[in-house]
Amino acid sequence: MATPRHALFALDPAATTPLYRQIYDRIRGAIASGALKPGDRVPSARALTAELGVARGTIDAAYGLLSAEGYIEARGQAGTVVTPGLKHRAPVVAPRLRSEPAAPSFRPDTVLPLQMGLPALDGFPRKIWARLGARRARATQHIDMAQPPLFGLPALREEVATYLRVSRGLDCSPSQVFITSGFRQTMTLVTRAVLKAGDRAWVEDPGYPPARRILDAMGVRVAPVPVDSEGIVVAEGVRLAPRAKLAVVTPAHQSPLSVSLSLPRRLALLDWAAQSGAFIVEDDYDGEYRYVSRPLPALGSLDREGRVIYAGTFSKVLFPSLRLAYVVVPTGLIERFEEVFQVFAGDAPELTQSIVAAFIKEGHFARHIQRMRACYAQRRAWTVAGLGQALGPGVRIDTQPGGMHLILRFPGRWSDRRLVARMRDDGLYAEALTDWSVQGNGSPALLVSFTNVTSHDEAKALGTRINRLR
Ligand SMILES: Cc1ncc(COP(=O)(O)O)c(C=O)c1O
Q: What's the gap in Å between 121 CA and the centre of ligand 1?
């Protein structure tokens, strides 16, 4: 290796930036500056673990990220090298400035104004929930106190299948529905069921970071595929990674740009999957929340070849701390998922599942979604108008037909990461679009949620606070 290791890897254990990120930044910086050139060897993960005295997982996380972003490549016996021809394949972006804040957590344990990822917390019918909860708890029999059924409570699998047939146009039976503890567990199980280490998978760029991180952590080589106004650019995916075995997409409202995947793209994606034997994960986290027309049918409703694995969650339509989600698999994969669940899953609490099953069966679920759709349309309008007034005509607010957040774009040169850090210090929440982009070539933007904004005045006051921080 051209650069002395100690100079390259002088780490600061006291810094707020995690160690893996420091290692990642050092190597990426060395590549950007030319100190490490395409084809140069980087130290093996084992050697670096010993040398730096950090956990092996720390090095693996840094190398995983560098590999997912195309900077380095494992060459088996020959070791790990800076990707040959890197300049042509993945533009080297400048290393992040020292003063640039690190990406904040995607699972914050706070509730701040404009916080993404939360439904309207004041809109949940807590009385009904409490009544059903008490009733289900009272009805507990001995059998209910034993192990929960491995693939999910039959009553819930049935309710979910019925709901998806009616609301999302999915032709599925309860045996295809498996209950999980959230989208991340779903992704872990899907990866175990249909991929092996070294396989490639498409993810959207920009896209939901946890999806990318899970694949990466499980040894899958991630291919970031750009997104435009029609959703994921399928032709680019085919060009970048034609032999990928999986594509993870958010067709209803692309996360985070909120555009819907157009019909031609849906058909192209299904075609590619059918022809190449790949699977598609349809992450339908907020498909119900569309404000200009009826919700679009799920991508899975067009699937005739058994390629779509549908991932749903109760985090948006009920609430995230519930930790309940589901995955609907093509009939050809039922046995495989049953095998995987026997080893790795089956832990969703039975009582919670039974309360949700009753909530759906008794019609509260459908009523709640309908009420929330109207509530969000109103809150979205307040937020767009209030923020717009406070931030002035220079700011662009992207309003797509659906979703649960807005995208704010300010004129001129600015750093979304820096503004997000200032907002967090001031007790306001936002996420930086830059943190959702892999190639780092997306323009800066703020992602803010409107779901808990309860008036036009509140939105305007929040806008005034953001304006002071710009
Ligand atoms: C794109 C996307 N997918 C899935 C989820 C749901 O994740 P979970 O079920 O783990 O709460 C979210 C929640 O924020 C999301 O934004």
A: 16
